[in-house]
Amino acid sequence: MGDLDKSVAQQGKVIPFRSRRRERRLLIVFLALLAVVAVGALLLAGGGKNYDALRRAVSYREETRVQLESSGERIAKSYCGGLAVLDGAGLGIYDKSGALLNLTATPMETPALRTAGKYALSFDAGGKTLELYQSGKGVQLSLEAEGSVFDADVSEGGYMAYVCAGGNAKAMLHVYNSSFELSYTVYSATRHLTGCAVSSGGHYAAAVGLGQKDHVFDSTAIVYATNKKDPIAEVSLGNQLIYDIYFMDNKTLCAIGQSSAVFFDVSGRMLGTYQYASLLDYDVCAGAVVLELGAAQGGSADVVTVGSAGQELGRISVTGAVYGISASGKYTAVLTDSGLFLYDKKLALWSQTQETAGASGLAMCEDGSVFLLAGQVAWRYLP
Questions:
Q1: Which of 131, 126, 168, 164 is nearest to 145 (CA)?
Q2: Pick from 311, 283, 277, 282: which is nearest to 297 by CA?
Q3: Which of 172, 354, 356, 359 is the most exposed place for a label (fewest CB within 10 A)?
Q4: Mean pLDDT for each 10-residue chunk of the chain (383 residues)?
């Protein structure tokens, strides 16, 4: 036995056999993992815009054009990768390729549309008709309210709420569960209810009450836990008309009014208020409100995004005519007479085009694409 063999034997050590093939395999695995991490970091960079760009490249390999059923006054919202379009004749549901999936012939004098997740709720504001559509399953609920419907809402979890005029009460709030069954009702004997919202899981509902305080009209947000009879909180919204109320998340609400947007939680704790002089239009996206305001100095309008604490996230001044604003996910789109402009939540510009082909309407999609509408045609713009 040589000196080296003796030394190894005396120390009780064994030199392991080293396989070049095994080392090469480990190196390949390591490099593959490193590539996955690098690709993941690249996709998440820029606030997720790179990931959305990949989604768009995979989902929309051909141009999307939608032949609309009517060219009259209508409401259009992005819906499950496609488009939901409501007019006085009914609701049309189009898939991401532009094919018509469903058309409901339900006449409405003043049609209103709410979308959330897989659900699209159409109702006749001031009338009595409501219809709830679920993607892939069709109309799940069609009903006639007891009195005139003032507002309605649907959550991503499939819960629906509406407020209407009541018989012996001034107004009623109804909540339907995700099985499309009436599960909660509130009768208001002292106040008219003009707006409503329901949380994603259906644990909370809110209504806007219109009453009098010191001989002056006063709006109040009334919050209900849907397993309790009495309200759990009330928040004064001031002497203003409230246009909309909605849940920003399961426990945070925003009321958009004539002169301010008010933010609060289900316990009634005030989170913030954003004041303005002239509200022209509004929309909502993930964690923010998008407001089109009359311009304070020059221009035709200011577009502002506001966070859930009432803080201004971004502001831009728009010159020329504004045809519409639309928000979804982390994106905001502004359509003007000079083109289409896409922004992030802080209103940093990230895409624009002047090729709008006379579009007069738009619908922002969660993945960053935008539907443009003109006449009886809608098409998808891909940044």
A1: 164
A2: 277
A3: 354
A4: 49 52 65 56 54 56 76 88 94 93 93 97 97 96 96 98 90 97 95 96 97 84 96 96 96 97 98 96 94 79 96 94 95 96 96 94 95 93 91
